[in-house]
Amino acid sequence: MSLHTYMLFVGASFVLCLVPGPDMLFLLGRTVAQGRTAGLCAALGINLGAYMHLLAAVTGLSALVLASATAFTAVKWVGAAYLLYLGLGALRSKGSIAFPVGDTRKKALRLIFWQGFLSDVLNPKVALFYIALLPQFMNAHDPSPVKHLIALGVTGNMVGIATSIIYVFLAAQMTSALRRNRAISSWLTKAMGALFVGLGFRLATEKI
């Protein structure tokens, strides 16, 4: 793999990260409603999920899932149901869901981290990215295809987490004043719930 090809992949990964997808909207929803720390936890969870997709792509699991209509549909519906569950939970909450201090805050942040992780892992479209895009930047006669596949995947994930962190900091800065108002904070929580519900319906109706 030449340096030119590698840089093309970096550029393509960056452009794709700029396109708002379910993961990006999830972390932005958390950031806007609950602040920078919540957004960062969501971003880290999503990034860990991306590494699980990379592992699945390297081992061939992603290809098996995408090749099977039944497996793809099952993963898609589980992911959609999970997003709907999160959205309805936020819509039913009373007031804002800002974090308290102490151990309760730590538990809430860990929960957001794993929610981000599951949101990414249960999105079959992410698996499609790894098995469809990455091979386009590899030579058919590459003597070390697995090594280069991993290198591209790790690079894409690093671009993804860097982009996510930038989005989180910008969104948190722009909405910090809104979260200090209890009424607006409560409205932001409901808006986040509606966003998650919308993402769930969107994922449920998507096709390969």
From TrEMBL:
Subcellular location(s) per record: Cell membrane
Topology with respect to the bilayer: Multi-pass membrane protein
Classification via Pfam families: LysE (PF01810)
A GO molecular-function annotation: amino acid transmembrane transporter activity
Any one GO CC term of the record: plasma membrane
Species this chain originates from: Paraburkholderia eburnea
Keywords: Cell membrane, Membrane, Transmembrane, Transmembrane helix
The protein, known as: Threonine/homoserine/homoserine lactone efflux protein
Transmembrane segments: 6-28, 40-65, 71-91, 112-137, 149-172, 184-204
InterPro entries, sorted: LeuE-type (IPR001123)
Phylogenetic lineage: Bacteria, Pseudomonadati, Pseudomonadota, Betaproteobacteria, Burkholderiales
